[in-house]
Amino acid sequence: MPLIEETGQRLAAIPNLTTSPGEPLSRHTRFGIGGPADLYAETGSEEAFIAALAAARDGGIETVVIGGGTNLIVSDEGFRGMVLRYRGAQLEAHSPCIRVEAGAELQDLVDFSIDRGLKGLETLAGIPGSVGGAIYGNAGAYGHAIAERVVEVRFFDGEAVRAFANQDCRFQYRESIFKDHKEWIIFSTGLRLEPADAGVLRETASDIVKVRNEKFPPTMKCAGSIFKNLMLNELPPAAASEVPPYMVREGKVPAAWFLEQVGAKGTRRGQIQVATYHANLVYNDGAGTATDLCALIGELKTRVRERFGLVLEEEVQFVGIAAH
Fold first, then answer.
1. What is the rounded distance in angstroms from the CA atom of residue 272 to the CA atom of residue 297?
2. Which residue in 135, 162, 216, 237 has the fewest CB atoms around it within 10 Å?
3. CB atoms < 10 A from the CB of 41, how many?
4. What is the pLDDT of residue 1?
5. Of 10, 99, 174, 305, which is the active-site residue?
């Protein structure tokens, strides 16, 4: 019996686990791009999730874990192995703290905190994706990041469920220790917030969502910004000297500024397009492919490298594709 079929039968016997062989991964990415996975499975149960990982490991099946698919580029050929998603989404408030499972939508967490008059997450309003993804990439906006509020992160390290305090997570700008250990799977996090007026928090969040939706419409097939912003003090001196002072915010230079200088706006490959109004926004304008998307990303990186002598780093993650 082929390994995939045998592993699929083992997965089907796990309680509280939903499996789907040959699932198109385009259904699970905001780009709307990606071929089928040999096996796709999801669950809101930690026990079922761990059992699914064990079944794949025992069967010698390669496994990738995904969240909301917001920052995911999946190969047009799909993924030869199992794609697994944790959907636990419970939220609990113990003012001024909140505990939330990693499968919850980040926006649901923001709304949950605001409804309870708890301040600290409102600037994350409108950012798509899951809480687990937000911890993994230390999501942030408007000078704040989720790491500022993290007290503890519970995760599975492949052998046991462990807990890290904030300092153990090694949070940096759009980084965490979990990016260095992709085999560690985040299950939940505890956050400490501050009491505040819910009406004021809601107004702040609503204003942010309005601006974000104008820049990144919810129906647009994109990952938001493709490239990370850059730290001014880490740039080559020649490149740093060209950056206008007004472009520097909290020590960072928007990647969009460098992209704009090399004529990125409006660049197109197939049905993959760089927005005409934002040089760091790449989107699927119809039936775009991962091949064209990766080629366009590579072209933009080449332009910036040749002009400024620096290498842009993607915010997106790749499945079934070698990182560029």
1. 10
2. 237
3. 27
4. 45
5. 174
Catalytic residue among 30, 130, 225, 269: 225
Residue 324 confidence class, pLDDT cut points 50, 70, 90: low
Burial (CB count within 10 angstroms: exposed 0-12, middle 13-18, buried 19+), residue 163? middle
Q: What is the pTM of this model?
A: 0.91
Active-site annotation holds for 307:
no
174 flagged as catalytic: yes
Asked whether the beta carbons of 300 and 324 are under 8 A apart, the reply is no
CA distance 134 to 109: 11
Whether the CA torsion 258, 262, 265, 268 is positive or negative: it is negative
Sketch out the chain's domains with CATH numbers: 3-86 (3.30.43.10), 91-200 (3.30.465.10), 217-319 (3.90.78.10)
**Across the chain, what does the average pLDDT equal?**
95
188 as an active site residue: the answer is no
Question: Can you give the C-alpha Rg of the chain in angstroms?
Answer: 20
Angstrom distances, CA of residue 91 to CA of 67, 101, 265: 17, 7, 40
